[in-house]
Amino acid sequence: MRTRSNLLHPLKKENKTMNNLNSLIAAFALVGATSAAIAAPAVRQDMKDDMKMESMMMAKTGQFKGIEVNKGSATISHSAKGWMVKLSPDFVIPKAPAPHIQIVDSEGNVYLLNQIKVAGNKTHREAAIPSYVKNVASVRIWCSFAEVNLGEAKLAKAIELN
Predict the structure, then answer these.
(1) Strand runs labelled E in 58-147
(2) CA geometry: angle at 16 spanning 14 and 19, to 5°?
C-alpha cells in the first residue's frame, strides 16, 4: 500500500526535473542576451563605418551661381562606372549653344567633360571623371562656343578621388 510519503516522492522528482529545465532555459536566455549585447555595438559600428565610407564616396555641391546658371547642384559619386559627376534634377540646362560640364580641382586645374546638349533633344546630365583627376573642388557649366563660365557650384571641401 502506498503511503502519503510515497505518493509525494515522484512529484518531488518531477519538480526537480522542472527546476533543472527552467534553470537551463534561463541560462540559454542569459547567454543569448549577453551575446546580443556584445554583438550589437559591433554591428552599430559596422553600420557607422559603412555610412562613413558611403559619405566619403559621395559629395554634393552647393547651388550653381553664375551669369546664366543659378539653379540646381551637382553630385560627385563613385559607382561601378568609376567616379561620376551628376547634375541634379532641378538643374536648368542653359540656352547657350554648347554647354559642357567642367570640373576644377583644388589646385585650379580645369577638366572639360561632356557636352550637356547634343544632337536633337538629347542631353547628358552626368559625366565620367577621368582617372587621372586627383580631386574635385567645384563643378562648372562652360560654354565652349563663347568660351565663358556660365555658372559654378563649389564643394564645401574638395573630394579626394584616388
Answers:
(1) 58-60, 74-79, 82-87, 99-104, 110-115, 126-128, 135-143
(2) 110
In Å, how far are 108, 159, 161 from 56, measured between CA atoms? 22, 8, 9
Cell of 40: 550589437
Q: Is the dihedral of CA 156, 134, 57, 46 positive or negative?
A: negative
* CB count in 10 Å sphere of residue 133: 16
Q: Where are the domains of the chain?
A: 1-56, 58-160
CATH topology classification for 58-160: Immunoglobulin-like (2.60.40)
pLDDT in tens, 2-30: 555 555 555 455 555 556 666 656 656 65
Q: Are strands 99-104 and 58-60 parallel, antiparallel or unpaired?
A: unpaired
By the 10 Å C-beta count (0-12 exposed, 13-18 middle, 19+ buried), 61 is classed as: buried
How does pLDDT run across 132-161, given as a tens digit for each residue? 999 999 999 999 999 999 999 999 999 999
Q: Which residues contact 90 (CB under 8 A, 6 or more apart)?
A: 71, 72, 73
- Overall pTM surpassing 0.70 (yes/no): no
